[in-house]
UniProtKB/TrEMBL annotation:
Superkingdom assignment: Eukaryota
Transmembrane helix among keywords: yes
Name of protein: Uncharacterized protein
Stretches that traverse the bilayer: none
Keywords: Membrane, Transmembrane, Transmembrane helix
Topology relative to the membrane: Multi-pass membrane protein
One annotated Gene Ontology cellular component of this protein: membrane
Length: 97
């Protein structure tokens, strides 16, 4: 029973992480200001970037950028500068611990 439960928890966690990654693509859409604000708050407070890592944003936004709140030194448009240091902790670990 315990092994089945652990597998189930692991699968739920993986499915939830995938749903979060899929939702990243809505970050810049006009009708999802609440979602954008939520990601900005989470990433700023938890000092993390993306669900699995900052490259999640590259795939979701279809270019090699991240939200500015991923930057360790935050300023406007810092997420467009590939030489910046981005948070390496991931959001998914916080959500599923």
């Amino acid at each position: 029973m315990t092994q089945t439960y652990c597998f189930y928890c692991s699968q739920v966690s993986e499915n939830a992480k995938q749903d979060l990654k899929d939702g990243l693509s809505l970050y810049n859409s006009d009708n999802n200001v609440g979602l954008r604000n939520a990601w900005n708050i989470i990433q700023a407070e938890w000092k993390c970037c993306g669900v699995i890592g900052y490259t999640d944003w590259h795939e979701a936004l279809k270019e090699k950028v991240v939200p500015d709140r991923c930057c360790q030194e935050h300023y406007q448009e810092c997420g467009r500068n590939s030489t910046n240091m981005f948070w390496t902790r991931v959001s998914g670990n916080h959500l599923f611990i």
